[in-house]
Specification:
The structure is a single chain. By secondary structure, the chain is an alpha+beta fold. Helices cover 42% and strands 14% of the residues. It contains 28 helices and 17 strands. It has a 6-stranded antiparallel beta sheet. Strands 4-5-6-7-11-12 form a 6-stranded antiparallel beta sheet, with helices on one face. Strand 13 (270-273), helix 8 and strand 14 form a beta-alpha-beta unit.
Length: 643
């Protein structure tokens, strides 16, 4: 687990090593243990690596690392969990090794089998830059599910790339600039999904992809099309599933247990996040069953009613016998952290669970260097309650109620809102603004031509952001790109595929990576191993969904280790009371950002409209915390970086 950056330029400058060192210093939190720089001036290419030492703590694991022949040089961020098996196979082919790192195994594999054959064999999380000195190419690659980040793009005549945007900003050729389409999607979803970034001309490499640059022929401004080396949709093929639910449970426990055992290998202290929910409890239970001492577990709680899961985590920890640590978060904790969020997340990011994710990572890092997480279970095992809900609403669109809602949504907005407020007793306490906001959502849902668009609008915070200029085109991303032919024609599997291609990599994994790496903590996610992903997506829905409750096969594994009474409860998520905090301790911070002087630094948001929603939120009649948080995160980022 580390960070890296680099550049390609015809003119590497007077002191390319110093430029690379500055880029590396910008991401020192990702790798505080060591640093390395490699430059090849005649090719105009340079790499810098920051190391968080996890495997092979000796200098033999340092990067950038050259292959035995000297042909390849790599800067790598991540962990390859099956590197011992690969090493054994490579040794059987005559390869020799200087050290014990997974990086050296990757290089030997690439030399022995070639890059295209090696990538599908790497089971782990990774992003890397690989220079091939013989072919005079640079290859950027990212893991299957998108656990590790990788940005790249041109700034004038310099191609830049790195684990975080702040490394690119440290290059003297950086000029930045805001991408309007990215801001539009930020308002819609509170995140900026791949492949775009907040900056014009800078992109995120999609998961399971690689992009190759010819160092002799790279044209400034020209970006080759990324190539896929693995396709998630192929995992949806049914017919490979076990014959019975019980057999599926047995196979999942064995498979997930084996993956967890591999991911527990570490030369530094290791623990796990524990929320007390199905996913994290399953991971911890299988860890404890394989550990020779009490597993260290960590959770976070809130004093506000309805937001606290810490007591559930403590009960699971007591039952499993883990060494458990918990932290209760106060508004003061959040207040002290909020000003740091633009720096931590590097581009505007507005999933408010970023706050507890960082705080639990910070606490965890005081005790261990590696933590396992239960992320991915909802997307893989049909766990989100919104899946059956959205499917049912889509199927009911032609019912009398659905037709009535569509007709209502087509009426003129302002008089319709006023009429609803006057005639509907349940709406009389609401403002015209609030009713219009809901009508916009209904109009967007009514205009959806297929389930994917219906889902996209269902998970949008701003369906038609009137505070944003008209005519800005939203780029292609995981929710509006065409469905591949491999996904079954089933509503729920369609929604799972959509989330696996945007919500998981662009929200959940971004949140975890940036929060943990800001604390120099490595996170590992067993659910996202290729074996578990392929198995989970091949299961028939009947193994996952029963009575509207998902993750049935995963639950059955957990029930073998933890009583149902400790984990069977409505899904709560990792929510925080941002709505309350914005009316209280965070109000001065927010109002400072909503001043005219801040809005004048950008040309996209209409302050008068934003202020109307802010005032409505302050009254307590409506909760616009999600809609406002994206705007506040953008303005805070703008103040911090200047765009």
């Amino acid at each position: 687990m580390c960070g890296f950056a680099g550049f390609v330029s015809r003119d590497v400058g007077q002191a390319p090593e110093e430029t690379l060192e500055r880029m590396g210093e910008a991401i020192i939190h990702r790798g505080p243990d060591d640093a390395g720089v490699w430059v090849r001036p005649e090719l105009g290419v340079g790499l810098v690596h920051r190391r968080l030492a996890i495997q092979d703590l000796s200098p033999a694991g340092a990067q950038p690392m050259a292959s035995a022949s000297g042909r390849f040089v790599i800067a790598f961020n991540g962990e390859i969990y099956n590197f011992r098996q690969l090493r054994s196979e490579l040794e059987g082919n005559g390869c020799s090794f200087r050290g014990h790192s997974d990086t050296e195994v990757m290089l030997n594999a690439i030399e022995c089998w070639g890059l295209e054959a090696s990538l599908p064999r790497f089971s782990g999380m990774f992003a890397f830059a690989l220079v091939d000195l013989r072919e005079r190419t640079l290859v950027l690659a990212r893991d299957r599910m998108g656990e590790k980040p990788l940005y790249y793009g041109w700034q004038n005549s310099t191609l830049m790339f790195g684990s975080e945007l702040k490394a690119l900003r440290a290059h003297p050729a950086w000029h930045g600039g805001i991408e309007p389409g990215a801001l539009a999607l930020l308002l819609r979803h509170n995140v900026i999904p791949a492949p775009i970034s907040i900056h014009k001309g800078i992109f995120k490499l999609p998961p399971a992809s690689l992009v190759t640059f010819c160092l002799d022929e790279s044209t400034p401004g020209s970006l080759p099309e990324p190539q896929r080396y693995w396709r998630l949709e192929e995992c949806f093929r049914e017919g490979r599933a076990p014959e019975s639910f019980e057999a599926a449970s047995d196979q999942l426990e064995s498979l997930l247990g084996s993956v967890i055992e591999d991911q527990m290998v570490s030369d530094v202290p290791l623990g796990a996040f524990l929320s007390g929910g199905i996913d994290s409890s399953t991971v911890v239970a299988l860890m404890q069953a394989r550990a020779n001492q009490n597993v260290k577990t960590f959770s976070i709680g809130f004093d506000e009613p309805g937001f606290n899961e810490a007591q559930h985590a403590a009960e699971v920890a007591r039952h499993l016998g883990t060494d458990h640590t918990e932290l209760y978060v106060t508004p003061d904790d959040a207040l002290s952290l909020v000003p740091r969020l633009p720096e931590l997340y590097d581009e505007p990011f507005a999933d408010s669970s970023q706050l507890p994710t960082f705080l639990v990572s910070q606490m965890t890092r005081k005790h261990v260097t590696v933590a396992l997480s239960g992320d991915g279970g909802d997307e893989l095992f049909c766990g989100y309650t919104r899946y059956p809900s959205v499917s049912n609403r889509w199927q009911a669109r032609n019912s009398a109620g659905g037709v009535a809602r569509r007709c209502l949504a087509r009426l003129p907005e302002v008089p319709t809102a006023q009429a609803i407020r006057a005639l509907a007793p349940s709406q009389r306490g609401r403002s015209t603004l609030a009713i219009r906001h809901r009508l916009k959502a209904e109009r967007a849902l009514a205009s959806a031509s297929d389930l994917s668009e219906f889902y996209r609008q269902s998970v949008s915070f701003w369906n038609e952001p009137e505070c944003f200029p008209q005519g800005v085109q939203e780029p292609r991303y995981g929710l509006n790109q065409p469905m591949p032919p491999g996904v079954p024609a089933d509503d729920l599997k369609t929604l799972m595929w959509r989330d696996l291609n945007w919500y998981l990599p662009d929200d959940i994994l971004v949140k975890v990576d940036r929060a943990a790496m800001a604390c120099s903590l490595e996170t590992r996610i067993p659910m996202l191993s290729p074996e578990v992903v392929s198995f989970a997506l091949s299961l028939p829905l009947s193994y996952n969904l029963k009575g509207g409750v998902g993750k049935q096969v995963l639950r059955s594994v957990l029930y073998r280790h933890v009583p149902r009474s400790l984990v069977d409860r409505p899904k709560q998520g990792f929510a925080v009371p941002v709505g309350q905090w914005l009316r209280g301790p965070l109000r001065p911070w927010a109002e400072a950002l909503l001043q005219p002087s801040v809005f004048e630094k950008q040309d996209y948001l209409d302050r008068s409209i934003v202020n109307a929603y802010w005032q409505e939120h302050l009254t307590g009649r409506e909760d616009y915390s999600a809609e406002l948080w994206s705007i506040l995160m953008f303005l805070a980022w703008l103040e911090r970086t200047g765009g």
